[in-house]
Amino acid sequence: MDACTLGDLLDVVGGPALHLHTAPAGQGVPVTEALLHDGRTPLPRLPGGLLLAVGVPAAQAGPLVRAAAEAGLTGVVVRGSDGPVGEAEAHGVALLSVAEDAAWHQVHLLLASAIGARPATASDTGLGDLFALADAIAAGTGGATAIEDPRQRILAYSTVPGQPVDEDRRQGILGLQVPPSAENTEQYRRLFAADRPVRLPALTASGLPRLAMPVRAGGETLGSVWVIDGGSLAPDAEDTLVQGASTAALLLLRARAARELARHRGSDLLRRLLEGTTDAPTAARRLGVPGPARVAAFVLDSAASVPDAERTALRLLDVVRLQCEARYGRHACVLVDGVVYAVLPAPGERHRSLAEDIVGRAGQALRVPVRAALGEVVPDAAGLADSRADADLVLRVLEAELPLATVDEVRPRVTLLRLAEVMAERRELSAGAWRRVLAYDAANGTEYARTLVCWFDAGCDMAGAAKLLAVHPNTCRYRLKQLQQHAGVDLDDPDERLVLWLQLRVLAGLSGATA
Description:
Elements: H1 6-13, E1 19-22, E2 33-36, E3 49-52, H2 62-70, E4 75-79, H3 85-91, E5 94-98, H4 104-116, H5 127-141, E6 145-148, E7 154-157, H6 167-175, H7 182-192, E8 198-200, E9 210-217, E10 220-228, H8 237-275, H9 280-287, E11 293-300, H10 309-328, E12 333-336, E13 339-345, H11 351-366, E14 370-374, H12 384-397, E15 404-406, H13 411-425, H14 427-430, H15 433-444, H16 448-457, H17 462-469, H18 473-487, H19 494-507
Parallel strand pairs: 2-3, 3-4, 4-5, 14-15
Antiparallel strand pairs: 1-5, 6-7, 6-10, 8-9, 9-10, 11-13, 11-14, 12-13
Helix pairs in contact: 1-8, 5-8, 8-9, 10-11, 12-13, 16-17, 16-18, 16-19, 17-18
């Protein structure tokens, strides 16, 4: 298992809880332990140690930083933002800080937990320890052993030679799943109602009985341990099984903590990648994000009534992650402000069908309509922030009749949306004759703005404009003449026509097609 690095630690507890001021040796330096400073004793020589400057004001921590460098420590954590950055850089020691009101014992517990609970990787899931435990239980009890999760999936099994087994065990190990049956269901009911080892009869004429024990921690059922009783179990087999189940609980909790830590770290890293606030190549490597990819965004329909929107959004995250992992394996998904983002690897031909499938499944499972948006396919992780911005824009133009779209499918809509935002923010882009036209209509009850937009949308063709307006061409012609006189508009100037059309379409939201 790789050592925890400063970068790993920041990925897990960075942000408001822990702030990095400088890391002269880079974020790849190891962090092996969090130490509480004791001014009465000299610092131990501990390469990789992270020293918590207890009792030392941040502004006065310069000597402590020098002492930490001499002791080979990785860094110093001070309380407050005015720590000795210059000293830290000069001595090659990382300087970090926590809030002024942070309790040192809580900071120590947080950092020690993050350093010790290393995230699980593909080859480090705790299963190796479970297999070793299964062998130990089998040797101690005298019967072939299997360790299962609550869903009857086989997590580990013993390989002690010479112990009798039956067909149920063989089939279970082959599929890593206990074969379902009504008799099995009844045995599990009995097992999970017990708090001691339970002796269970064979389910078939050729089968063998079992000695089983539930695995629990804090009242939660984490799984079960099963031992085949071939007629020669040890006299203290039940005591051995009780001890084994207790150890299994610790291993399963540790494996879960590692998985949750990995998920938390990955979510935080993906969030920063999509925000464009982290080093993209490094983040992509840690997340396993491929080269060309796009961002897909999923959100609950805002028009729907959702009693517990936060909880439902978390369930939506689970649905998206499950479907993406089924197609792409380990996958990067994150929930940000009610929106679930997923990174989909190129090629993108199947992305839309995947999004459609997720929208359908999520809508059924959550009983809430779900909308989905697909950003642009970008060449590498550095472009994922832009692809996320595309997806966010697409979400804003979706509607009940269009619950899913790629950015290319709604390019005109999102372009007009962004144009409206940019033009509204800039005085010089939002000023001009269009305001006088609207003001005149408001004051006099005329429809000059609508007439003007229809004329533009008809390619400045009077007959086409009249058709859109459902009036005679002469009426349209009269209105345009009056418009020029009262609003000071020069319709002979092609540049003014273009600007007027953009402002009325984009800022006023007028359209001849819907007039």
